[in-house]
Amino acid sequence: MTPALPRWWREPWWARVTLAAILVAFAVLTAWNLARGGDFSFYEASARSMSQSWQALLFGAFDPAATVTLDKLSGFAVPQALSVRLFGMSTSALALPQVIEGLVTVFACALIGLRWRGRAVGLMAAAAAASTPIFVSMFGHPMEDGLLTMSLAVAVLWWQRAVLTKRWWPLLWAGLFIGVGFQAKMMQAWFVLPALLIGTLIAVGGRWPQRLARVGALLGSAVLASLSWMLMMQLVPAASRPFVDGSTDNNVFAMVFGYNGIDRLFPNAIDGAVRSGGGTQTASGAAAAVTKLIDPLYLGQIGWLYPAALFGVGLGVWSLVRTWRGRSRPRPVSPATAMFVVLVVWLVTGAAILSAARMPHTAYLSAIGVQLALLAAFAVDEAVRLRRAPGRAGRLVLPMLTVVQLSWCVVLAVVTGMPRPLWIAMIGVTAGMCALVVASALRTPWRRRLGRTIALAAAVAVLAGPALFAVQVVDAARDGSGGDAYVGVKHDDPRAAVAASFRPSPPQVWGGAPGITPPLVELVAAARAAGGGRDGAPLFLTDSWSIAAPVIDATGDEVLTDGGYSGQAVVFTAAEITAKIRTGVHLIVVRDHTPKGDQVANAVRAASCRTLHTWPSAPAGSHTKSTSSGGGAGGFTLYSCS
What does the alpha-carbon distance between residue 232 and residue 441 come to, in Å, rounded to a whole number? Predict the structure, then answer.
């Protein structure tokens, strides 16, 4: 008979209350500026389009008429689209699903920790995840990394269930959630696969055929769930579905595995994928460096738990060495050991790939957040256990951990520009807890009676740094954005001078409208006055997503867009554009300084269209926050081709 799995509702009341408090605190931080931080307008447009049309939802389209997809899989936008459909278009409606995904992630860490090492590790893991700065910013904004992170945490939870119960069917659920993560952010979801496959091999008893069968079930379900939408897209005739952005030949596999996959490591390696850097912003500097995970730009977002996690890896390896020493033959490892191996392999895999690949957005760092939280919790729990060890070396592990963590916090407070009130509080709390832990290691008459107090002090010493750093998100100038989740202010950020001091903003949980610049407001009015959008016709046709996206965000109107995000996707051929002009799409918007191959501009010249209005480019240096929605700095012209 399979033993009952530990569940939080069976734990003591104080443990349940503590977990609830962690979840509530996380929800408050992520939702504090929910109405202020919208997504990148390109993805906002897709979410609104998908909320208005089931066809657009099915195909992951950029526009309501489903003529072109996003430049990546759109699974991450499905919860956003359903939220917009339910609550109406607003910044909060777009971001609400990510808050829920964050709460599920924190709870999944708590449940994994509970079933791995008990309630102390579960609570510590939940608190570590809830205070990880990149999580606090990322889950408060509409972006694809939220669904990915949640899916992989839940996949590991199902895998753990399979190992604990010795049943195979939870492996299918683990594979399914890896597939959900793939729909959110493609190949990044497979970072966890090597770890789970190795963990399955070493944890499952029986003969090799039985082990390989379970590995095959996990791998098969993950691959099938990952490729399901792509296979559906390829089976639908090209004329009956949107053009696949990110590809030059309308091929979803080229878009996923080329443009969004191998090309990130080896540019332009896959035929049919748009060429890297064409029309997109290429990562450079720290984002492209092999040492990015220890660069000050990113350390404050993910690196606070590095020392504790490394202690955890060291303690776990030492425990494995002592356990396996003297064994005459290999045996299936315990579920707890298998979980440790999975977390270490997953961490190493994610860190290695992030170090090698270009990283356009800080939210990529979330790929190692769950592992760090769980390994840090393991480290504290194991160090507390070693306080009762007969040898002096074991009793010194916990003081060493807290002293190293204190030193690390001081370094990070300096290199990250942490606001003075927060770093003073952080150093005061961490130093106090560290002193208590060190004192408990001395031969004092009261040290054995401290027990849980020492464990709590060690947990606070480890988590005070990231928790207080993450508190910065209550300042609207320091909580990042949907384009780049980031806690604090980057040195090269235009807002750095404005946000020199830390000032909590009043909470703004609900509301917020998509941004649109005054020239685009005038464009919409001019297009409607000229007959655009009547009788089911599109508002206009354009060659730039940066013009189309804010208009779709703000109005929900159909805007035909050629070029895709890269500018290289041939959504409409020259003949098709000419045919649309003849059949009623008589309003065309062309951006300034188009290349010779711009088919929309060429069609306008061939049709001898009449200029209705021109909006010049904004002067250099006039970039404002509103221009982040697109269309703010580049000039464009509205033509009538009737």
Answer: 62
pLDDT in tens, 220-279: 999 999 999 999 999 999 889 999 998 888 999 999 998 888 776 677 777 778 876 544
In angstroms, the CA 93 to CA 107 distance is: 22
Q: What is the pLDDT of residues 368-418, one digit of tens each?
A: 999 999 999 999 999 998 887 777 777 888 999 999 999 999 999 999 889
- Number of helical (H) and strand (E) elements in the chain, helices listed first: 24, 5
For tokens 């493609």, the residue is 186
Q: Could you tell me which residues come within 8 angstroms of residue 222 by beta carbon, excluding any fewer than 6 positions away?
A: 174, 175, 176, 178, 179, 182, 190, 193
Q: Which residue has the tokens 């694809």?
A: 144
Q: Is 90 helix (H, G, I), strand (E, B) or coil?
A: coil
Question: Alpha-carbon distance 83 to 583, whole Å?
Answer: 36
Side chain identity at residue 39, one-letter code: D
Cα distance between residue 543 and residue 523, in whole Å: 15
Q: Which residue has the higher pLDDT, 47 or 449?
A: 47
Termini Cα distance of the chain: 77
pLDDT tens digits along 279-299: 444 566 677 778 889 998 999
Q: Hey, what are 401's tokens?
A: 């951990």
Is the Cα torsion angle 456, 457, 460, 462 positive or negative in sign? negative
Is beta strand 587-591 parallel, antiparallel or unpaired with respect to 610-615?
unpaired
- Alpha carbon 112 to its chain centroid, in Å, reads 20
- Nearest to 471, CA basis, from 21, 104, 12, 25: 25
- In degrees rounded to 5, what are phi and psi of residue 116? -90, -55
CA atoms within 13 A on the CB side of 640: 13
Which of 470, 316, 307 shows the shortest CA–CA distance to 403? 307
Q: With contact defined as beta carbons under 8 Å apart, do 41 and 482 qualify?
A: no
- 593: tokens are 């300084």
Asked whether 445 and 498 are in contact (CB, 8 A), the reply is no
CA distance 300 to 184: 25
- 455/443 Cα distance (integer angstroms): 18
For 254, which DSSP code? I
What 3-state DSSP class applies to 1? Answer: coil
Among 17-21, 330-334, 460-464, 518-522, name the one with the lowest average pLDDT. 330-334
Phi, psi of 398 (to 5 degrees): -65, -45
CA angle (347, 350, 352) in 5-degree steps: 105
Question: For position 471, what pLDDT does the model report?
Answer: 95
